[in-house]
Amino acid sequence: MSRxxxxxxxxxxxLTLVLLPSCMQVPDSGPxxxxxxxxxxxxxxxxxVPGGPRPGxxxxxxxxxxxxxMRAYPANPGIVRQFLTERAAASWNPGAGTQIYPDRPDVEExxxxxVRIETGLVASLTDRGAWSTPPSSKRLAxxxxxxxxxxxxxxxxxxxxxxLPEYDFExxxxxxxxxxxxPALRVLVxxxxxxxxxxxxxxxxxxxxxxxxxxxxxxxxxSVVPPTERADASVPVTDDGVAQVKLRSPARGxxxxxxxxxxxxxxxxxxxxxxxxxxxxxxxGAPLVLEGESNLVDVETGxxxxxxDSAASQAMFALRGNRVVxxxxxxxxxxxxxxxxxxxxxxxxxxxxxxxxxxxxxVTGDRSTVExxxxxxxxxxxxxxEGTSLLGLQWDIHGLLWAVGGTTSAPAVHVMRDGRSAPVxxxxxxxxxxRAFSLSRDGVRLAVIAGRGAASRLLVGRVRxxxxxxxxxxxxxxxxxxxxxxxxxxxxxxxxxxxxxxxVVA
Length: 506
Fold this sequence. Notes:
- By secondary structure, this protein is mainly beta.
- The strands form nine sheets. A five-stranded mixed beta sheet has the order 1-32-31-30-29, with no helix packed on it.
- Helix 5 (201-211) packs across helix 6.
- The model is unreliable at 1-13 and 19-41 (pLDDT under 50).
C-alpha cells in the first residue's frame, strides 16, 4: 500500500495530523542563497536564479550544475536544459513529476563518460502533484551519460521530471486542494495536490480541475468543469484580484444548477490563492453568468457545498456508563438524554447523532443490534440485528448510518437507512482487526485504526457510491497514513477534524 503524507500539528496525547508536508527543517550546509524579497502570502520571499554551465566544465561539474538548476525559484526549465544535449533538452519534460530527496546526492564519476548520483528518497509527486511516500529502502539513484556537444559536456539521459531537495520543496511548495463533487453533487470533495507557490498557482489549480481528479479519487467523485477545456489554459489574475477563467463553447450548455456548481468548484479551488478575490468567467470571449446576473463570482460563493459541513448541529453528546448524556461544553455539565437511550433501560455501548441532532442511533444488547430513535422519543426502531461485536456508528452527510464490527480477522462494515441495511465491500486489501473508524465529512474517505499496540496502523480507504442506489457502497484503495517525523505508533482512536485533517489518539 502507498502511504498518505501527513505532519504533526500539535504535540499532545491527542494529535492532529494534516495532509501537508512535514515541518520545515533548517539546513546545516548548502550554497549561499540570494537575500529575501518581499512577496505575497502565496509567494515565498526567497528567490534563487542559478547560472548556466561554465565553459570547459568537467562532467561532475555539469551534473552538479544540472541538480542546482532544478532548484531555481521561480522554476526555470530553460536553465536546466542548458546542461542537456539538444536532443535531451527537446524531450525532457519538467512536468512529468518530482522526486524529493533529503540530502545533496553523492556524485561519482564513472568510466565511459558517465556520472552516478545517489541519495535517499523522501517522496515523489506525480505529474498532477499527488504525493507518494516510497518504501524506506528505496533510494534515488541514476547513472547519467554525458556526451560532447560543441566541445562541452552535456547530459544525454536526464531523469524524468524534477529532482528537488526537501528543503527547497518545503520552502517553495504548499498543499492545495482541487475541489470536485461527491457522486450525488451535494458536497465538495477536496483532492489534495502539492504545487509551487507564485504567479502560476491559479493557472495550475485550474488546469488541475480541467484534468479531473487525481488517480486515487478518480471514479469516486464528479466534476461539472467541462472536460473539453484546454489543459494548458492560463488563469491570469488582475491587480484588483480578479482571476480570469476562459472556457470554451461546451460551457454554454450548462443549466442553472450546473452553473452554480461550476461557480462553487471554481471559487473553492481558486480562493486558496491569496491574491484572488473574485472570478470572471468567459466562454469564447463572451461573459458566462454563473451567479445572479453577474459573471463576476465572489470567491466566498458555494457555501451550500461546504465540505466541512458547517451547517451541522454543534450540540454535544457523550456516554456516561451505558447511558447517553448531553454535554454543555461551557459549563462542563451533562444531563441525561430524554428517551430510551438516556434512561439506562437498555445498555448502550456506542451511539451516533445525525447531523441535525434530531435522530440518534445506538448499539445495544450484546453489540449485535442497532436501534434508531428521535431524540427524546421512547419508541426506537430496530434497523439491524446481525452485527458481530459492533464497535461504533456514524451518520454520513447523505443520511446513511455506518456500522463497523466483525472479528479480528474478518472486519465487517454495513450501511443502513430507514430500517434497511446492506454490507459494504471493503476489498481484498482491507486491513484486519479494525478497532476504530471515522468517515470524512464529504463521505468519500474512511479512516480506520487496525491492529493493537505496536502493531496498530492508521489507514484511509476510498469510498465509492451510486446515487441511484444509496445502499450500494464500497471501500477500496486502502493506503497507510505516514505520520512523518513524529513516528506515531500504538494508535487508539481517529476522527476527521476537517476536510483534509485527521485527529488521532496515539
